[in-house]
Write a structure and sequence with these properties.
The structure is a single chain. The protein has 382 residues and is an alpha/beta fold. The protein has 2 domains: 202 residues, Rossmann fold (3-Layer(aba) Sandwich), CATH 3.40.50; 163 residues. The chain is built from 13 helices and 18 strands. The protein has a 9-stranded mixed β-sheet with strand order 12-11-10-13-15-17-18-16-14, sandwiched between helices. It has a 5-stranded parallel β-sheet with strand order 3-2-1-4-5, with helices on both faces. α4 packs across α5, α8 crosses α9 and α10 runs parallel beside α11.
Length: 382
C-alpha cells in the first residue's frame, strides 16, 4: 500500500445513547431532537493517534473538515492531502459517495472509514468490491464483516499490512432496514461482499444472522436467571436480543426486541429507554443491574446495539459487578473470549477479566472478557 483514503461519517453512532437503532435518513434529526452528541470524531482521533504512536508512515488522502482532515490536522499527521470538494453541513450518503469517487480517481489502495453498516453500504455502492475497505467501528451496530475490533485495532491492521503481515479476503456488507429495526423487526440481509483485511484478533467477523440457539435453550437460560438472580426490590435493565426477551416472555411482559426495558418486582417500569431514561430510573429505584447477551460470532457484550448503557450508566452502577450476561451454549461456542467497547478505554480496561456467563439452567461458565481498545495488552499482536 502506498496511499490510503480516510473518511469519517461524523454522525455515525449518534443514535445509540438516545435509544435509536441508527442515524440514517430521518433518524439523524430524531437523534438531534433527543440531544444526541457525535461519537465518530473521538473514534477517528483514537485511530489516528494510535497510527502515529505505532510509527506508521503512509500517505493519506482525506475528505475535508469533519469528514476527515480536521482530525488529521489535530494529531499533526505528517503526510496527508485534503480533497477540495464541497460537503454539505449535515453530511449525507451523497457526500460519502462523492468522496469515495474522488478516492478512486486518485488511485487509493484502500479506503479506511469511521462509521457503521450504513457507511459501509454507501461505500460499497461506489467501489463494488474493487479495492479493500477497513471499517473503524462507530455505528450503533456493526453487523458487517469489514470492521476492525476497535480504532486501535485498525491502526495495528494498517501497520501489519505495510509489513506484509495478514491477507485480503472477502467480507460481508450487511444491509439493515433501520425503519423496521426501529419498530423492533430485525430485518438484516447480506447486501454484498467487499475486499477487506483478515488478521487474527484484529478483525471481527460479521454477525451470525442464523440461529443462535433454539427457543428451548434461550428459555432455559432465562428461567434460571429469573429463579436465581431476579430478586425483589431491585431494578433490572434488560438489554436487546432474543435471549433477553425470553426473560420478559417468562415474566409475561412485552419487551422491545432491540431496545432497553426496565423491570421492577415483575412489572415493566420503562420501555425502549435512552441513557437519560436509565439514569432517572436508577435514581428513582436505587439498586439496579444490567442484563445483556452476546452478539453471535462477534462476541461483543457492550458497545454493539446497546449503547444506551453508556460509560456514565455503567460507572453509576459500579462497573461489571452490576452486569449479568446471558448467552446460549450455541452462541458462545467457538468464542475464545468476549469483547467490550463502550467508547471509554479506561472503563473498558477496568472491566477486563473473567466474567461469569449464564449458559443454561443451573449452568454458568467463566469466560475471559477483553477491552477491544487495548487488545495489544492482552493478545499476541505484532
Amino acid at each position: 500500500m502506498k496511499l490510503i483514503g480516510f473518511m469519517v461519517n461524523p454522525i455515525a453512532g449518534m443514535g445509540g445513547s438516545v435509544g435509536l437503532k441508527g442515524t440514517d435518513g430521518r433518524l439523524y434529526y430524531e437523534a438531534l431532537k433527543r440531544g444526541a452528541k457525535p461519537v465518530a470524531p473521538a473514534k477517528a482521533m483514537r485511530f489516528l493517534s494510535k497510527l502515529k504512536e505505532l510509527g506508521v508512515h503512509i500517505k493519506i488522502i482525506s475528505a475535508a473538515h469533519v469528514m476527515g482532515c480536521d482530525y488529521l490536522a489535530k494529531v499533526n499527521y505528517p503526510d496527508f492531502k485534503c480533497l477540495d470538494i464541497p460537503i454539505t453541513r449535515n453530511t449525507s450518503s451523497n457526500d460519502t459517495k462523492k468522496v469515495v469517487k474522488e478516492f478512486l480517481r486518485y488511485g487509493v489502495d484502500m479506503i479506511t472509514f469511521v462509521g457503521g453498516d450504513g457507511t459501509a453500504k454507501d461505500i460499497y455502492d461506489v467501489v463494488n468490491g474493487s479495492i479493500p475497505l477497513l471499517g473503524i467501528p462507530s455505528g450503533v451496530k456493526m453487523y458487517s464483516g469489514c470492521f476492525a475490533a476497535s480504532p486501535e485495532a485498525a491502526a495495528y491492521i494498517i501497520k501489519n499490512l505495510l509489513e506484509g503481515i495478514g491477507s485480503i479476503d472477502l467480507g460481508e456488507v450487511a444491509d439493515a432496514d433501520e425503519e423496521l429495526i426501529q419498530r423492533g423487526i430485525p430485518k438484516v440481509r447480506i447486501y454484498g461482499y467487499v475486499l477487506t483485511p483478515k488478521l487474527e484478533y484484529l478483525m471481527v467477523p460479521s454477525k451470525d444472522f442464523g440461529a443462535s440457539g433454539g427457543s428451548e435453550e434461550k428459555y432455559e437460560v432465562a428461567k434460571y436467571f429469573i429463579e436465581e438472580y431476579m430478586v425483589r426490590d431491585t431494578l433490572f435493565l434488560l438489554g436487546p436480543g432474543t435471549t433477553i426477551k425470553a426473560v420478559a416472555d417468562i415474566l409475561g411482559l412485552s419487551k422491545t426486541l432491540l431496545g432497553v426495558d426496565a423491570v421492577y418486582n415483575g412489572r415493566l417500569v420503562g420501555i425502549d429507554l435512552s441513557e437519560t431514561d436509565i439514569l432517572k430510573l436508577i435514581n428513582m429505584y436505587g439498586k439496579a443491574y444490567i442484563v445483556l447477551t452476546v452478539i453471535g460470532r462477534q462476541g461483543y457484550i457492550l458497545g454493539r446495539g446497546n449503547q444506551q448503557f453508556t460509560p456514565r450508566v455503567i460507572r453509576r452502577l459500579g462497573g461489571k459487578k452490576a452486569i449479568y450476561v446471558l448467552a446460549t451454549r450455541s452462541k458462545i461456542r467457538g468464542l475464545r473470549y468476549l469483547l467490550i467497547d463502550t467508547g471509554d478505554p479506561e472503563l473498558d480496561v477496568s472491566m477486563y477479566g473473567y466474567w461469569r456467563i449464564i449458559t443454561g439452567f443451573r449452568e454458568e461458565r467463566l469466560i475471559k472478557v477483553l477491552p477491544a481498545c487495548c487488545l495489544d495488552k492482552f493478545l499476541p499482536l505484532k
